[in-house]
TrEMBL record:
It comes from Corymbia citriodora subsp. variegata. This is Protein kinase domain-containing protein. Residues 1-24 form the signal peptide. It is found in: Membrane. It comes from the Eukaryota.
Amino acid sequence: MVGTAAIVLIVYFLIDCLKKAGTAIPSYARIATNDLEKLPKDSSSSRAISIVPPAIPPGHNQEVPDEFRTLERFMKPTWFSSEQLAVCTGDYATVLGCGTYGVVFKGELPNGTLVAVKVLKNAHDKRMEEQFMAEVSSIGRTNHVNLVRLFGFCFDPTTRALIYEYMENGSLDKFLFGDKMAMDWRKMHEIAVGTAKGIAYLHEECEQRIVHCDIKPGNILLDRNLSPKVGDFGLAKLYSREISRITMTGFRGTHGYAAPEMSKPYPVTYKCDVYSFGMVLFDIVGRMINDDINQSEPMPGLPMRTWHMLQNGKLLEMVCGFPESEREKAMRMLTVALCCIHNKPEVRPAMSTVVKMLEGDVAIPTPEYPFENANLDKPSQSTGNESEWDSDSSTLRTGYSGGCCSKPVKQSAELELANG
């Protein structure tokens, strides 16, 4: 009798489990929108956000492509529906900036947290989907005070969007080349050091090395306290630490900041970000020099001029207009910049070393002549068109440049993912 009762209970338990299994919501599509209110308001913390994505919006195809399941491994950001984005942005009322690949709108979450919503244009274009995947898979893995935080994303049949923390002071280029107020030199130095720390984290502290591929003032964003955060990971590449070089399929980056090897059909390393950061250092110091001589445009040939002044022992003359207490820092930044922009990637320092040099914790080696032709190793195979210059390769600046942009237009489209 007892045995029969036990068997009945076991069968009942199995049937109940099967029923639950048949109706269970997958882990990638759990929860209610109430969880959006749990997002912290304080953007200064470097703690990661780990919120289960909301359920697939009603009326959408409940079958999720197998390719999308690969997103599950980095699904820390919240999955928003296009309807939620429309509410969040007030039907896309406030444009913060726009570019070739998308438009950035100002939004507000239910708990009052301000966000920047980057909506991609031509969202179903293969190249655009690759950039979308690059951003989610790279910044979605990060947790650092000097990296822009990704709160969530929208990936439905009509909309591809990324939801970032809102950066009150926009991008660094507005302070360097735009009409933003002048900034204290000490704060400029802090921005340089903070940016270097963010890049060093990407290169050396993540489980997989992340190469940003587009470091420039427009992608260095500033919060309410003017603390820097690296943003815009649309061109980023992830690769194992065991791999020393990666091959790019086409030019990546921005002219004037991209390393020489980026425009050639050769494998590249994370040192391409080091080169770009060196050019940013020249921009920062150059802005202060320009202010001293009442020049509003970037100073041409500053790297070469710095090299000649260093060789002739006259570097101090370049920074004579700086406050006396800050001249040593300015000379240090110029010398580090020369180390960073060497044409040979292997000569450039690691970003963790750059941080120490900028902070004065280690001595700066005498820079080698940085402008000699790079001796790059050719790959075993070439795709043929990798050295072509792509004028549209720079990604949308999330540093808000303003402009006239329209809100997203809903389209009927197939849900398709870029492979890889």
